[in-house]
Write a structure and sequence with these properties.
mainly alpha; 3 helices; about 0% strand
Length: about 130
């Protein structure tokens, strides 16, 4: 026969109080573990973000360095082409003389070698 005492009926419906506390403790531990994992994930995301920022800066520095080096190379190429033009003009001017010094012949050969090797971007007008 069911008990008419309300306190007795309440405790009969609910599981043992120790079981509830144990389940609650287990759930709290699981929540704590999830929070720890979330904090670890946040730290890893922050580290990854910082790494990406450093990588981006490195890429920008590298691109800037390459652009500066290209500009220097263009200046050097221009200077080399100018020098070759002047040397060609000198060789051409001296070619009309009866005797041409050996250095002029060597200069003409060096110009041909530089041109054939692709070091000169302007092609010689006279060979």
């Amino acid at each position: 026969m069911p008990s008419s005492d309300p306190k007795r009926r309440e405790t009969a419906i609910l599981p043992e109080r120790g079981d509830l506390i144990a389940e609650l403790a287990g759930r709290l531990e699981a929540l704590d573990a999830l929070l720890n994992r979330l904090e670890d994930a946040e730290r890893q995301a922050a580290d990854a973000s910082e790494h990406l920022i450093r990588t981006r800066r490195w890429q920008e520095d590298t691109v800037r360095t390459i652009q500066e080096e290209r500009a220097r190379m263009r200046q050097r190429q221009h200077a080399l082409d100018e020098l070759a033009d002047h040397a060609r003009a000198a060789v051409a001017a001296l070619a009309h003389h009866r005797s041409v010094p050996r250095e002029v012949h060597e200069l003409a050969v060096e110009l041909q070698v530089l041109d054939a090797a692709g070091f000169l971007t302007r092609r010689g007008r006279t060979r």
